[in-house]
Automatic annotation (TrEMBL):
It is an enzyme of class 1 (oxidoreductase). Its EC number is 1.5.1.6. The active site is at residues 288, 322. It catalyses: (6R)-10-formyltetrahydrofolate + NADP(+) + H2O = (6S)-5,6,7,8-tetrahydrofolate + CO2 + NADPH + H(+). GO terms for cellular component: cytoplasm. It comes from Papilio xuthus (Asian swallowtail butterfly). This is 10-formyltetrahydrofolate dehydrogenase. The chain holds residues 411 to 920 of 920 of the full protein. In the C-terminal section; belongs to the aldehyde dehydrogenase family. ALDH1L subfamily. In the N-terminal section; belongs to the GART family. The keyword Secreted does not apply. Keywords: NADP, One-carbon metabolism, Oxidoreductase. GO terms for biological process: 10-formyltetrahydrofolate catabolic process; one-carbon metabolic process.
Length: 510
């Protein structure tokens, strides 16, 4: 139901005691949820200049949830200018780093209080299975905010012994400073988590931000905007602009007052963005892009675990997972057994309504994405098409006998499709060469009980993440990001702060 909603906010932002927005209230998942449907600029929810909307569809039943304001180029300009004022003159620029941390902790607490609501919104918007949304999409988002809130007052420079200009003496020190107005552009697979991975580090470093969520899944970002206002994040510090990539995203990459752009998405759009950042004003850029991650399973592994983790490596979050194992290399002696077991387990996966607690596999995120998941080549041993029910459901799929040159072995599916080929233990160099035979380098995995073999593989695989005897084990404290055409610049961990800081070097003579 579309309505006007007023919610209390604690302090900061505009002078009014309440935040008012046009939004939606729904009874779903045995709870009341409400969220804004307007742009969030300078601490207020407002309509777009363009009068354009995004239509938001629930992928589990293809129903329209609501319409959301779609930002225009002039809305982007308005938001960037508000973020610039907030950075240079606002309360944000005056409070101490420790106070900044307290505000981010408060925001995390509010997210925690609303985690069921956020997970429900994520589920209806993106098709994420609710139980997973609660634990990962929302749970890891909250952890990310707390982790970076803790960093705020620990960002420090160094003192450096430089050569003296005799007879005088010199001292050099460095300051780690925020960059200014940052833009963030994120994809649809983990809407709130991708926002959090980038924005928490960005704000902890003291920047202000204009953020564009994916056009198909903007709802948790808008709920997050409401929580920012309620937490008392000063006006203009966080601006959220749902809109199209071609218009709103491009305007952010082109904007001369934006000094840094953090992007997660496809390699193709990453290239466009990097070019635009260079041409407009040489803005700093970090890119988390696609992957086709290899998972190498040796015959001496714990096979039960390899089957379980191998499936999770591919089917987690419906395969809409940037580090999904896009290529499984299974040693020939265990290959047939592995395939048999994987297919038996895959058949047992509970496909259905993502809000049902027993569901393990929900619908694909949106129709255009699902329509791309068509099989070709190789041997299809299970699945390979839509599930016969309403909603964008795709059967978890297994291909064997995949050759390295085939399209499905080279291009990311971003869907629940397992691609298996064999290798021989007689030629480990060969499987490493095949694993590295891609322009991507996001993640990788190895299953073996032989420590030397595991470490040798970890050393030689050219990817930003290597999992040994596990998969998908990301953590807010550990750096995450790819090599080669999977991009550069890390999310998470201390290293992520570097993406949102600049180092100033000060030399004193005395
Ligand atoms: P993209 O099509 O690249 O879209 C990502 C974001 O960029 C969206 O918000 C999109 O807007 C926007 N965009 C599109 N064109 C733009 C332009 N010209 N200028 C500025 N922004 C623009 O990717 P996707 O299909 O949403 O996401 C899937 C891809 O993301 C996969 O390849 C996956 O591997 C990758 N991914 C990587 C990671 C990491 S951490 N490496 C994590 C998740 C996903 P619209 O909403 O209008 O499309």
């Amino acid at each position: 139901e579309f309505c006007q909603i007023a919610v209390m906010k604690s302090r900061g932002g505009s002078d009014a005691a309440d935040i008012v927005y046009d939004g939606v209230e729904m009874d779903v998942n045995k709870m009341k949820i409400k969220f804004p449907t307007q742009l969030f600029i300078n601490g207020e929810f407002i309509d777009s200049d363009s009068g354009k909307f995004l239509t938001i569809v629930n992928p589990s039943d293809e129903s329209v949830i609501c319409k959301v304001q779609s930002a225009s180029v002039s809305d982007v300009d308005k938001a960037v200018k508000a973020a610039k004022v907030a950075f240079e003159e606002g309360e944000w620029s005056k409070i101490s780093a420790r106070e900044r941390g307290q505000l981010l902790f408060k925001l995390a607490d509010l997210m925690e209080q609303h985690k069921e609501e956020l997970a429900t919104i994520e589920s209806i918007d993106s098709g994420a299975v609710y139980t997973l949304a609660l634990k990962t999409h929302i749970g890891m988002s909250i952890e990310t905010w707390r982790y970076f809130a803790g960093w705020c007052d620990k960002i420090q420079g160094s003192t450096i012994p430089v050569s003296h200009a005799r007879p005088n003496r010199n001292l050099t020190l460095t300051r780690r400073e925020p960059i200014g107005v940052c833009a963030l552009i994120t994809p649809w697979n983990y809407p709130l988590m991708m926002l959090s991975w980038k924005m928490a580090a960005c704000l902890a470093a003291g920047n202000t931000v204009v953020m564009k969520p994916a056009a198909v899944c903007p709802l948790t970002a808008l709920k997050f905007a409401e929580l920012c206002a309620r937490a008392g994040i000063p006006r203009g510090v966080v601006n959220i602009l749902p809109g199209s990539g071609a218009l709103c995203g491009q305007a952010l990459a082109d904007h001369p007052l934006v000094r840094k752009l953090g992007f997660t998405g496809s390699t193709e759009i990453g290239q466009t963005i990097m070019k635009s950042c260079a041409v407009s004003n040489m803005k700093k850029v970090s890119l988390e892009l696609g992957g086709k991650s290899p998972l190498i399973i040796f015959e001496d592994c714990d096979l039960d675990k390899a089957v379980r983790n191998g499936m999770a490596a591919v089917f987690f979050n419906k395969g809409e997972n940037c580090i999904a194992a896009g290529r499984l290399f299974v040693e020939e002696r265990i290959h047939d057994d592995f395939v048999r077991r994987v297919v038996a387990e895959t058949k047992k996966m509970a496909i259905g309504d993502p809000l049902h607690r027993g569901t393990s596999h929900g619908p694909q995120n949106h129709k255009a994405h699902m329509d791309k998941l068509i099989e070709e080549g190789a041997t299809l041993v299970y699945g390979g098409g839509r599930v016969d029910r309403k909603g964008f459901y795709f059967t978890p799929t297994v291909f064997t006998d995949v050759q390295d040159h085939m399209y499905i072995a080279k291009e990311e599916s971003f869907g629940p499709i397992m691609i298996i080929s064999k290798f021989s233990s007689k030629n480990i160099d060969d499987v490493i060469r095949r694993a590295n035979g891609t322009e991507y380098g996001l993640a990788s995995g190895v299953f073996t009980r032989d420590v030397s073999r595991a470490l040798a593989a970890a050393e030689r695989v050219d990817a930003g993440t290597v999992f040994i005897n596990t998969y998908n084990k990301t953590d807010v404290a550990a750096p995450f990001g790819g090599f080669k055409q999977s991009g550069f610049g890390k999310d998470l961990g201390q290293e992520a702060l570097n993406e949102y800081l600049k180092t100033k070097c000060i030399t004193i003579e005395y």
